[in-house]
Design the sequence.
């Protein structure tokens, strides 16, 4: 039943490694971009608040497939922006990471904003009374507590991101979903075996992540 794994025709581990790379790069970028967006959404500057709110509502409600295709068709094929990629393969990978960051950053933002709301207002007011600026209060007082409060929601965002990397197959990124599609076409007699292999692969990627970060969430939770 699993003879296709021994044929050497399919690089299953290589495809999942691309998935892992997509996840790691996109997670790092989404955390940074989501934090910036969260700062905008709670900023006292109306222009920043308006931009953050509009961006989150617009991008979060746009299908991820549309964003990924927009990066490929709009940035690369129309405007010629290749993000420094030397080949179409590298360019496709980087465009997929950009689309995933743009999309996932909105969910990171909302998770962080909920964490910011758990920080007592009195702490921020006390910090402002000591002469700290808004950004100093956010960086030194509010965000450290907010991150500790939202480890569990961010874990869910990371797991969703891992599964969302399959959308990168729409622009030809050679990750697990693209290989699965190829194997389904070529190994029709082993359809359930192919599904089983890739389902198990994603479980092995997401389950340890959930268990580990769930433990971290309990360890760093703010006691109030």
Sequence:
């Amino acid at each position: 039943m699993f003879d296709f794994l021994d044929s050497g025709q399919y690089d299953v581990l290589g495809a999942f490694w691309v998935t892992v790379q997509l996840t790691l790069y996109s997670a790092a970028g989404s955390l940074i971009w989501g934090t910036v967006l969260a700062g905008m959404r709670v900023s006292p500057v109306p222009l920043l608040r308006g931009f953050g709110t509009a961006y989150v509502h617009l991008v979060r409600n746009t299908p991820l497939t549309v964003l990924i295709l927009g990066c490929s068709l709009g940035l690369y094929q129309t405007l010629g922006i290749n993000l420094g990629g030397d080949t179409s393969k590298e360019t496709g990978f980087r465009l997929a990471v950009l689309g995933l960051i743009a999309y996932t950053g909105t969910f990171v933002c909302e998770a962080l904003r909920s964490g910011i709301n758990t920080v007592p207002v009195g702490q921020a007011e006390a910090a402002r009374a000591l002469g700290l600026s808004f950004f100093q209060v956010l960086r030194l007082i509010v965000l450290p507590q907010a991150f500790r409060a939202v480890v569990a929601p961010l874990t869910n965002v990371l797991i969703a991101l891992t599964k969302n990397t399959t959308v990168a197959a729409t622009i030809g990124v050679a990750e697990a979903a693209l290989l699965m599609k190829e194997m389904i076409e070529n190994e029709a007699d082993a359809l359930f075996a192919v599904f089983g292999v890739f389902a198990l692969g994603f479980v092995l990627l997401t389950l340890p992540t959930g268990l580990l970060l769930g433990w971290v969430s309990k360890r760093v939770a703010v006691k109030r």
Q: What stands out?
A: The mean pLDDT is 87.
